[in-house]
Amino acid sequence: MSISPVIVALDYPRLNDAVALARQLDPAVVRLKVGKEIFTREGPAVVEALQALGFELFLDLKFHDIPNTVAAALRSASALGVWMVNVHASGGRRMMEAAANELAKASSRPLLTAVTVLTSMSDADLAEIGVAGSAADQVSRLAALAKDCGVDGVVCSAQEAPMITAICGSEFLKVTPGIRPAGSDAGDQSRIVTPPEALQLGVSHIVIGRPITRADSPTQAVAEIIQSLQSP
Ligand code: C5P
User: Fold this and answer.
1) 206 FRET partner, CA 20 to 30 A, in 4, 32, 70, 155?
2) Catalytic site residues?
């Protein structure tokens, strides 16, 4: 069976908890996402421990700094052998080009995605920081810029995926959180879509955390999600 589009968000503070959950999952079926909380506490050891179990990792550190610093951070991330890394598109052209150029030097290049507009930002929040126009306009502008800079895709909401495909093409990756299997608790996510709906909207990878990590049986939760993706 080929690997699925599912990326499980391991949002734990401690390495041991992340490893205990990962041991219940199959690296041939899902990838894992390591974020700022656990990486800040545990460092590269968490990456190494999960890779030792055979998983491909999305290192979700959303770098945003001057081009030279972001390129150097990505050199370090690339040396860890992760599958995907990301930056903030609002760092601009020179930062994203430096990021893409740095990763191109790697023998096994991680995929590079960019966050366009944080989904926590409303149009009013954007106006307050001087961004005129709607969040959708800004997402479109930054997605097109990211593509032009050699970035492989964006982290976006599933609702934005059709617009981004229209601008950047279907090959441009769309990595999407805010996914909830039918019948599961929405938690703090709003504007949620189900896994099959996300694929229908043209999303390439779906990030799912708590519906899997807090399930009585994470194995079964994954199996049900994969099944839902396969049924017509
Ligand atoms: O548990 P849940 O499925 O909500 O986890 C989703 C993951 O995606 C979390 O790691 C969260 O930080 C991340 N994320 C998100 N919404 C965004 C960007 C990232 O939920 N807009």
Assistant:
1) 70
2) 62
Query: Residue 178: CB within 6 Å of ligand 1?
Result: yes
Handedness of CA 141, 117, 212, 36 (dihedral sign): positive
Q: What confidence score (pLDDT) does residue 232 get?
A: 58
Would you say residue 123 lies in a domain? Answer: yes
Distance CA 99, CA 150 (A): 9
Q: What is the pLDDT of residues 139-164, one digit of tens each?
A: 999 999 999 999 999 999 999 999 99
How many separate domains does the chain show? 1
Q: What CATH number has the domain bearing residue 223?
A: 3.20.20.70
**Which DSSP string do the residues of 27-82 spell out, in sequence order?**
TTT-EEEEEHHHHHHHTHHHHHHHHHTT--EEEEEEE-S-HHHHHHHHHHHHHTT-
Predicted pLDDT at 1:
62
* Domain region containing 90: 6-230
Tell me, in angstroms, the distance from the centre of ligand 1 to residue 178's CA.
6
Spatial separation of the C-alpha atoms in residues 214 and 205, rounded to whole Å: 20
